[in-house]
Amino acid sequence: MNRTRTTLVALVAGAGLALSACAPGGSDGGSDDASSPSPNAVKTDAASLGDVTLTVWDQEVRGGQEKQMSTLNAEFQKKYPNIKIKRVSRSFDDLVKTLRLALTGADAPDVVQANNTRSQMGEFVKAGQLVNLDPYATAYGWDKRYPQSVRNVASYSTDGKTFGSGSLYGMPQVGEVVGIFYNDAKLKTLGINPPKTWAEFDAALATAKTKGEAPLVLGNLEKWPAGHVFGVVQGRFTKAEDIRKLGFGQTGGNWVTPENTKAAQTLVDWVDKGYFNAGFNGQDYDPAWQGFTKGKGLFLIAGSWLQADLSAAMKTDVKFMLPPAPEAGGTPVTTGGSGLPFAITQKAKNKDAAAAYVNFITSPEAMKVLADNGNLPVVETAEQKAPDALGTDVFAAFGTVSKDDGLVPYLDWATPTMGDTLGATLQDLLAKKATPEKALEALQKDYGDFTGK
Amino acid sequence: MAVRTRPPSERPTRTRPPSERASRARSLGPPGEPRRIGYLYVLPAFLVYAVFALYPLLRAVHLSLFEWDGLTVGTWAGLSNYQEVLSDERLRASFGHALVLMGFFALVPLVVGLVLASVLHRASVRGLGFFRTVVFLPQVVAMVVIAVAWRRIYAPDGTINSVLTAIGLESWTRGWLGEYAFALPAVGLIGTWFESGLVTVLLLAGMGRIPRDLYEAARLDGAGAFREFFAVTLPSVRGEIAVALTLTVIAALKTFDLIYMTTSGGPGHQTTVPSYEVYRQAFEIGQVGLACTIGVCLTVVIFAISFVITRVGDRVAD
After folding, report:
1. pLDDT digits (tens, 9 = 90+) for A415-427
2. The CATH number, out of the four listed (3.40.50.970, 1.10.10.10, 1.10.3720.10, 3.55.50.30), of the domain defined by the range B38-317
3. What angle do CA B112, B118, B119 make, to 5 degrees?
4. Which residues 146-185 in chain B show a CB within 8 A of chain A?
5. Whole-model pTM?
6. How many Å lie between the alpha carbon of A219 and the closest alpha carbon of chain B?
């Protein structure tokens, strides 16, 4: 009995030693040997590539998204019968959770929709699992059609450390922009003109408050919504290039500046003056904007993704505007970016076919299909016809801000932990558990710890 | 005069007949097939257990010793991940929150369950089956559904606030899940509501097994309702209490869906719990090693607490 126990202990100890020797991910790590093709090696004639099966993982599962994707896939198949598309479609949440494993597996998909963030695309680039698209960008002319500010949000340095510049790793189909939705009908009854400048916006808030309205709608239970409100206010005080450094997590930025302090202080002032609906930190995001459609509040600071729902509920009573420019005649600065970019995996068997597919679904014709189905095309936006009045506002706004280089990245893209830090810190700030200075220090710590590494 | 009662488990144990003792001495072992054959019987179940429980657990312990992002080759980190769990204020706080939730998930339901069960047991309620079903119903509903429903109840324009406004307590209304002082208790109360039914039904079953004559004896000795409860009912359901506590404590410590669906750990970091941190570290931040470490620590805590509960439960029952 005693001897068996000793052997058992020895066995376990031995197994432990053996375990410590083999590091996880070792057998199937980054493939360093896979180099990207040079521009003249790229084949753009998809019809000549022979029989290919492409496995594509996307997250275009809802309404118009699903329709544009299946339309484009069908058209692609018709044009290139030699390439077979095997489509795997799953919700955003499921995609984010499974992609990591899928890419390291033996049976990896060829084209995937990878979130722009460091924790997704950045990590995959670092691990050498995505193909550098620069040669394809030159061959297909993506670099001419897609403006720099849009390409930046899908670009990384080849080691995955720098986000927002370097090589292109994905091609987005749709754009996103955060702006201000307002209840036009209600503004009229209150006798307020749609604000053109920040001063007019402040005045509109004050007037609405004196008339017994809580002018701003916010549902911040999920933590992230306040980040979009802050992004808009930050664009009022802080220069676009400074926000970009912070948002992309590039070195040389600083959170603790007088400009950012002013932005944080503005949010606190809005809370103090009772501009937000009561209990916003405990309010769900969806019921909040649903309340807005039923006439609660005047202004809703949110993204273009709400366009379809708001338009369906409010018809022509709702309008969309970019935040006013920091000073008269200047460029509005606001948070925005792209939908999830399509990337090609290093394990793709035929990378040229994969690139041809990515090119097809981001072509000028594809942009039209996107718009027809109610999506916001990421390029050539102004030329497309929007599905409704609100859509026209949003398309025009995105066209302006992306052309004038006023788009700044989502602030939570900065570091892998920033999403949570930003959400929690802004909840602290808005609940007055943290002063603007303390809040910015917390953000600076997250940013500094990461960029200092 | 003291009421001396004996729970049913305290029946005198049967003494072994002398013949059996003799045969044991003769063969120097239990009768029947050789002992090792026993392991063969255990093998199929053990294999399943090993593949689906033991191996993942060992693998988690293994991974917890690495700094690994789930993609590239991990680097050996020794015990530094464990150090981080202990030193990181936020991770430590998450374990603290789990302990608070334990109170709401286990202790409060136990009290509620004891009261409810003894009332239902004593009074010959009509339609007991109906009440039992109603009380047990939360257990049948998926936690996600419960969380969504309660989110509505706690919302700034939700049920609780409407009721408060209706009875003139408008100054008490607030966004419950967004308030720093109230968020954790608010989440905990959902747990209380969820677990009380389970505990009640368990205790009801236990009380149903108590022989009537014990109560009669107690009543003859002049015991009132309270005396009866503490002298007869409570000691008789010790076993059930231990089971109920084990189940609810484990549920409290591994709560994930509730937090994920209600507060995402907010406001600030007021309601974050270890399981939520495991998810966050592994899937959102990509620190698989640290996530495994938190998981392992949580397993150890759960194991320790349920060990103590069953030990105490057993000892008292003896």
Report:
1. 888 988 999 999 9
2. 1.10.3720.10
3. 90
4. 151, 154-157, 161, 173-180, 183
5. 0.81
6. 10
